Amino acid sequence: MGFTRQMGALLRRRHASSAREMVAYHLGKHGQDSDTDFPYRAFLENIERLKKLAHLSCSNEELDRYLWLAGLYCKWQKDSAKKKK
Questions:
Q1: N or C: which end of the chain has fewer CB within 10 A?
Q2: Tens digit of pLDDT for each residue in 2-45?
Q3: Judging by beta carbons within 10 Å of its beta carbon (0-12, 13-18, 19+), is residue 46 exposed, middle or buried?
Q4: 35, 57, 55: which is closest to 46 by C-alpha?
Q5: Three-state SS letters, the chain
Q6: Which pLDDT belongs to residue 51?
Q7: Rounded distance, CA 20 to CA 10, Å?
Q8: How many CA atoms lie within 13 A of 79 on its CB side?
Q9: Quick one: three-class SS letters along 23-34?
Q10: What is the mean predicted confidence (pLDDT) over 51-66?
């Protein structure tokens, strides 16, 4: 499977915002590109930056799965905290 096709799966997910938020969270102080004219390209560049900085050797599919699930978990935690107040 080609790079573009693999990475395209990241934004096609129903909860793509979860993945984008997790990329931003993990890049943290290293910053991220936020090209408003080409957000998809910026997202792909951020993914590659994250993989390089974290020395990740996982496949794009594995990273996609992690980012998506981690994002959903963070949202669940925030929602749970709001309900307790």
A1: C
A2: 555 555 555 555 557 778 888 889 998 777 777 778 777 888 88
A3: buried
A4: 35
A5: CCHHHHHHHHHHCCCHHHHHHHHHHHHHHHCCCCCCCCHHHHHHHHHHHHHHHCCCCCCHHHHHHHHHHHHHHHHHHHHHHHHHC
A6: 92
A7: 9
A8: 6
A9: HHHHHHHHCCCC
A10: 88
Block residue for tokens 């915002």: 17
pTM of the model: 0.67
Phi, psi of 74 (to 5 degrees): -60, -40
Tokens of 62: 């594995």
**Whole-angstrom distance between the N-terminal and C-terminal Cα of the chain?**
47
